[in-house]
Amino acid sequence: MERSKIYSILGKFTKNELTEFRKFLISPYFNKSRNVKNLFDLLQPHHPDFTSRVLDKDILHSKIFPKSKFSSRSIDNLNTKLRKLCELFISINSFKSSTPDMDLMLLNQYRKRKMDSLLANKLNSLTGAYNPDMHYSTEQYHYFYYLNFLKTDLNFSKIHFEKEEKILGDLSTDYVLFREYSYRHKIRLLVRLAIIQFVTGQSRELSPEFIKLLNEILDSRDIKEHSEKQIYSKVAQNLLNHTRFDYFKLKKELLKTQNIISNEDFDLILTLLVLYFFYPIDETDQNLVRERFEHVRLMIERKVWNVVDGNMKEKNFSFAVNAAIKAGELDWAENFIKYYSIYVIKEQRNDAINYNMALLYFTKAGTEKFNREEFYNKAFDYLSHFRIRDYTNKLQVYLLRTMLFFDTQQYSGVYSECLAFEQYLLHNKEYINSQVAGSYIVYNKYLKYLTNYIIDEDLLKIQKLIEKLIKEKPFINKVWLMERVSNNIRKVKT
Predict the structure, then answer these.
(1) Are residues 264 and 134 part of one domain?
(2) What pTM was estimated for this model as a whole?
């Protein structure tokens, strides 16, 4: 266990960090154990995977303690010490690179040591840098907030009756700034909560606490109007009305404020807006399909989805590829898979590549300029290597498998997939968003109808099916299904 921890940490170090860490280990101020340094020297050549046989405990022990009898505990203890030094190194480096953290540490030491004059001078210098007309990140607002907390605390400690009026004035100023920081922080929390609400499909079941927060932000009149407040208010209004938000209206408002609000705010709202496309859209509307792709491309360029250690979730990676393919951007999709798959979380990377390459080859097989049989086979092959079995991925794989079976005229395979999917939904409906599940159910129903009618060569029922589909609300893969119905009407007629 301890070995896996140290390997996980060191595996994320860059070559430059490994060099700096060795200097750190040599310093007697941080490390007084030569054996810990020796252990690191044995590990470093095997960065980043640490899979070599020479790293087995008995071999490491023989090199570090050549005159001692093998003891697993000795190596475990060295691993523990090395891990703790790694964590200290990471913390110190992070601290050194953060001027606000260093400022706050110094201020707290001034405060603890009762060095009030130095504390007051430093606080006045730092708080004077705040500009109410600028837009800061959440971390920067926390920083200014805490600076004013220290300033207020210092003001309280200096209260004298003859200076009462000035102190009250300082405290009033501090109070206004407190509310300013608090407001801007809450407004960001609102958007994060909204994203969770949409992702989990709970946008129609807002809690009383959530509604109270929304109303508090909407009704806040003692805070001056900010660009953040204006656009976040529109987001909140959509939530309070229990309706799916107007994507184009909010996107227009967002673009107006792009050069005014902070990058953090802009990216947060981009994330919220893209959720509009996580639900079925009318894919016959080419403007909407193109807009989805352009929105996704913007998020990729801004690295909005690289949220976990700089990596991307498989779900978002697949969404980007699908958006590109639906917009006819096959070259972009192929390059994206090739160059961006390295950013997918390691545990999900192979599935991301296999599923999306299957989707890409399936799409290429549907165009005349490619070898259909060869590409259909490649799609089946990639899909057979898909391993993860979470609910969202199950739905994606089901969809692609039905399309592959249908387009290769393996109608018994289509019907088997449809029946298996019905059973899957029946046993897992509590884990799948009801709106998403409902969309797949409609697709499943019409696909079964079409398959049966083709087998029976019933032209009349196929013609009636296209009429029903036209009247049906948007659901997953509706455009593809309508194209297949139309194609089969032509085939039966000829």
Answers:
(1) yes
(2) 0.60
